[in-house]
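tool=predict chain=A
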Amino acid sequence: MVAEVFKFIISLFAIVLGIDRNQDLNEVELSLTAEEIQSPFEFKKSGFERVLFVLQQSGPMALQAMLYLVQNVLSFLALECLEGSTYSLLMQGKLFATAFFSLVIMRTTLNSRQWRSLLTLMLAVAQITEQTKPSKESQNLNTLFVTGLLYTFGNVTISGFSTVVMEKLFKNKSSAVNMWEQNCQLAFYSIIVYCGLIFYNSGIHFFHDWSFVAFLISFISGVGGIMVALALKYTDSILKQMASTFAIVLTTLFEWYFMEGPMNLMIFIGTVFVIVSVYNY
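tool=predict ok
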């Protein structure tokens, strides 16, 4: 929730300062008719008046905030039924879920080389995850495994759908709000949702035992959310998901170098395949 607060503040400053407003205003006016251009147009508001207008037009982002909440809940439920390594392996299916919804919603076309790159990347990351999992045997029962599998499938499907919908919203040139304003809207509803959950679970002691490092990590996470929005606006949702899987490789390498984590030939080969797959795509 704190990460969303930081993201809200950063986006709020961007709105007040009018970052990207001239470019976005030109793009919107190109999509309007002559009558619409001559009529009073809300996009031309500025400053705090603009902030109020953005919050009034934030309905679509409420659904996105709820989708992200459902994803987080499904993640917790799945991890109660599955080992972390198994969950990480299954979550690589979000690459293909994203590709599917890109075809349906964004009308994206992928050639055989790109599909091959996606498959190779998913298998390579799965191999790395398999090699870095804990050595202990699973204690999960078959029923728990099936339940966890269903939770993970729902998470993968919602993740792919919500990512592509966000891309479509960010790239909608006729929208009355730009990317920074949409980020502000999403953070606004996310804060409301997570405040309710935190109050339900912890009462009023929101920041009990929080350290400077905890706030720093939350700030980095908030900036990361803005970077994701920029990636969706200027590239596409598939590349964004590929970057997320590449982060698993970087995490494995950093863990090996700084924390004496596992590293063997299979992890090295998987890393090479990840790099080649991203390059080929």
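The mean pLDDT is 77. The CA atoms of residues 8 and 221 lie 12 Å apart.
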